[in-house]
């Protein structure tokens, strides 16, 4: 086999083993320590969210007035250990954080998923078909984007009432426009690509072109936006719950925990600090992973991440 | 003899890969004497660009590093610079000052957001410490040097306002700005039309004579080598296959690879006196099996009459149409069954738009298209979709026309599925058959386009076009992006399929030597019109229109006696196909030369008369 291979020159190596598989992604991840820790954090978060019942050391709503306001790393009267301390009702903060993650993460995931699906369908079809349909969709998007979203969310939740399902509904309605705008641009660019013209020449219908030919090619940037959107929604959920329009007590959510802890911020800093840290770390890790995903899925960049023995030796 | 300007010895450049470092080029040695033109020639993947880029330490940016060998540059003051050891600060002064670079793609080598003047002045101010006024003065000089008309006005223009040839001249002017002693030109004419290519090559030679700068020209085209080189380095698989003076390499090639490269270059005039197309000459490993002559039928398959397509140019606040680009103007031709009609012309001549109009991928403004007795322009969208079953298209760029995220199996069965011709496991059987047909291994069906070479991809595109058993295939520059040896294989495959299945081709191209080989009849397009149409034999033996003659004369040949100097440098911009709203060009009038040979005698707009051809 010829020993000529590199993206800079032409690829003459048996392409079979040039395709990236899971092992290569793991290898690339292992070399990028920061992203690797972000991924680990998110995996741990997911594990805690799913297995909260088994992993949490205490009951999330279990009152224990004897052990009120204990600082982190303290042992209560009955010999119970509280890793991150307790709140004003004596509930374990660590346990509440775990259960709160369940609410925050699912609001983020579901909200982002709904707005992504709706926005991408609207945007891709608008970009591909064009004409009056595109004008209508995109002007509607412009209109929606010019609404002050937090205010609208407050108003709607005030009328419908707070709670999990309504929160997701509001997020989907207020966040699909970013996806629509982005995927319209992607579809516009893809529409003039030769493989799309070729698909049309081969008799593909409009729907088939949009969803079978264009969509798989624009998934990468959409995925990045999706990851970022999850982080944004977790933050929004925190602010809405903080204002009392989101998740209703006694269900824990990170934003709600900050709102409750606010009164005691002078005497019990941990009540605000740890939920705040959880929100911060989750958003940060999602951002880190998003930019890593963007880099490794970029055909012009990805080889750098999988190559062995790189590094600007000269 | 002076010391050589550049000395490269035992060069080995490595690149990272999944299985560790890999050599991109190895054991490459060459020298460049002051003022000489040296050509590095090879096909894609031969390492020709890597060898040259290493001189500027530009391989770093794609992750490569010099693993072994020596690279020295004799600088202006007589010092010898070790290019391998030079640090980034030293390299910055070398790039531009000592070595200038001309890139392949003039469209992307210039920054679209700045004026020509700004971009030229930038490097002058940086490298030469010139004031703004001095830099402006020098810029005008430079533009004059590269023969750009009205240099003062050009400085205020943006790159998109200039034609491709003009832009490449600007790129050359930028490379010349600091009077480098070596110019590296990476395929400087590959993206340009043949007539423009001839001009740019002539310009590079002229500049070499005037400034005494040495030129390192990277190319894949043996004809360009024959026109330009003093010294030649032939590269294959990252190694030097052969080097020597141009006379030596072209007239008495020693290495089998050089001999093969020279053998596959189609030569204009090879087909004189023959009426029917013939397969290309290939190297010994040919697998072409054409046993019967490619005789066209007598029934008209496609009849195009008075086809016109204009693209509105919008401007102003309200986006009103301010002018029209006349892409296709009153074009009429027919294709018989089993016949190949070649539509030739340069970029912007409207030949590709004509192809797209026939498939109704662009909607023509007026005219008639009758295909197999069906009036295509009268069909509904859904009927048109079904009509495309009988006419398929092969596109120029096999890297762009295949969907990167679909397996080859899915791509090949796409038309079968869309037209509901097969279903279930029959789909896969048919795909396997098609792959046999285009000589690709069946195992490739599971692969994705990125795992194939350019030639293999174009075979997939052909297999896909054959899938619904079409009567007509429109091949839009189907071989232009391929290496010469692969080009020959693909063309032979197309002819083989024609002999066997009786397909008609509309072959859209610009390479006259290829066109001469494959076509029964030829139509030459210029500014949206057919200016001459005849049988292949008539048009090559007796070209009538000025533009046809220009096109034929511009084809570079392997003949060393015809070096590029004879070329006049065009100073007028090429005539524009953009006309104000409401403009109606004169009706076409063809003069009959002999039976079946017609030449346009009027119908070009008055502005174009008298300067047909650039």
SSE topology sketch:
The complex is a heterodimer of chains A (314) and B (614).
Chain A: H1 22-31, H2 33-50, H3 52-55, E1 74-75, E2 81-82, H4 93-129, H5 131-145, H6 149-160, H7 164-191, H8 194-201, H9 206-242, H10 254-261, H11 270-297, H12 303-306
Antiparallel strand pairs in A: 1-2
Helix pairs in contact in A: 2-4, 2-11, 4-5, 4-7, 4-9, 5-7, 6-7, 7-9, 8-9, 9-10, 9-11, 10-11
Chain B: E1 6-15, E2 22-32, E3 37-41, H1 48-54, E4 65-74, E5 80-82, H2 88-97, E6 99-102, H3 106-109, H4 116-128, H5 132-145, H6 151-155, H7 164-176, E7 182-186, H8 194-211, E8 214-219, H9 222-228, E9 231-236, E10 239-245, H10 246-251, H11 256-264, E11 300-315, E12 320-336, E13 340-344, H12 351-358, E14 366-371, E15 374-375, H13 381-387, E16 391-394, H14 408-418, H15 425-437, H16 454-466, E17 472-476, H17 484-501, E18 504-509, H18 512-518, E19 521-526, E20 529-535, H19 536-541, H20 546-554, E21 578-580, E22 589-594, E23 597-602
Parallel strand pairs in B: 3-8, 3-9, 6-7, 7-8, 13-18, 13-19, 16-17, 17-18
Antiparallel strand pairs in B: 1-2, 1-4, 4-5, 9-10, 11-12, 11-14, 12-21, 14-15, 19-20, 20-23, 22-23
